[in-house]
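Below: protein 1.
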Amino acid sequence: MLPGDVMVRFAGIGATDVSDAVGQLYTMDHGMRSLYEPAGKLIGEALTVKVPPGDNWAIYAALQQARSGSVLVVDWRGYVGGCGAGVLALVRAIRRGLAGVVIDGAWRDVAELRAIGFPVYGRAVSAFSPSKREMGEVNVPVCCGGVIVEPGDVIVGDDDGVAVVPRRHARDVADALRPSEPVASIDDYPPDEELDSDAVGEIETAYLDAYEEHTRAYQERGREE
């Protein structure tokens, strides 16, 4: 497990901040979202499982290994013809401290998950419970939402999606980011003069400079013709 002080620092950090730090390579695609709204905040260390699409036997095996702070990350290859499992499969693991589920596929019992405040992220909701016949692999590198996730990687999820911090970079990323301040109105944002000096201002300035250069080049080509 990662040191507790590292995980505590991620508590106030959103998925967008993490995504900006780790890049697209470690940001799950837009189809991976909370299965209920408002999204339950998700933070924890990946407990990975690779499961044959349409079978969920290995998910039950993985849940037996869940510990406090684990996030079950399921590689189901985007299968949504059935659910990975439901709330009853999670109860014992939740009591041991399971922090959430991220599945490249579907889940069910969304109303109950919302009621108990347990975060589940995935592609869809499906009522159908699939077969339990095939073996899978637990605690191996998996692909979920287009991202390679290894056991122990940090998972951060919220209304904006899911981002992954490789375990080996977790402390550096935690040190580099700061918790976001709550925002209730437009007045909670920095004044314009401060925005001009931050990344937003830099992006706007860079765009305007590039646009002016493009315009000059276009006009010069027109005169030459």
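Below: protein 2.
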Amino acid sequence: MMVASIETSVKQWADEQIRQLGWQIIASENETADKVIDESLKNSLSKSGGTGGGRPDYTIIVSDGDKTIPVFIEYKGSKGKLEKIDKQGLVVLRTDYGDFDFKLAIPKYAVNGASYYAMNVVKETPYLEAIAVGINGNKDTSGTIQYEVSAYVLSKNNSELPIKLGDYPDLDFLKNTDPQKSKLFENIVDVQTDPKELEQRAIRDDAKIEAVLQ
């Protein structure tokens, strides 16, 4: 028996928090956060590979006065639909044949969909980094909704390599107040310069090259 998606409940839970984060620029799916982002998304293929682009469930522009970074948020509401990762622990954006996975990973998983939007924006706009946030929820045996939030950062240098920022119980990590704001921006730098992450990146790059050559 297929369990019905509770994406509407997830959306309500997240939307309420997003409006309380304190950022000036927040945009739901039908609103504009930045014309440059809009243009980039319009000119990219949608999450299912169609023309005319697609829109994230929410976009937030965050800044610490030094860096300005767009955050793309995608919602899902079914068990196991937070993220699809491969054997290397990478967020799946492409199939084993090297094409974008418009059939499964990108349209059907929250993190993968958000990462696809973030990837297009760092490739096509002046933004050097973007954050992808996936939010999922499903009901446990008692009928209580369990929410899960996962965030990744993508950079212009590695636009197809989302690097994990963390898993969170809610959206407080995105607040426009300290200590949350300082911690977020420190974390964005730290995860990208972590020696372990750099080593993993080399392994991933080798694996990606091998996959293409096969």
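The two ends are 38 Å apart (CA to CA).
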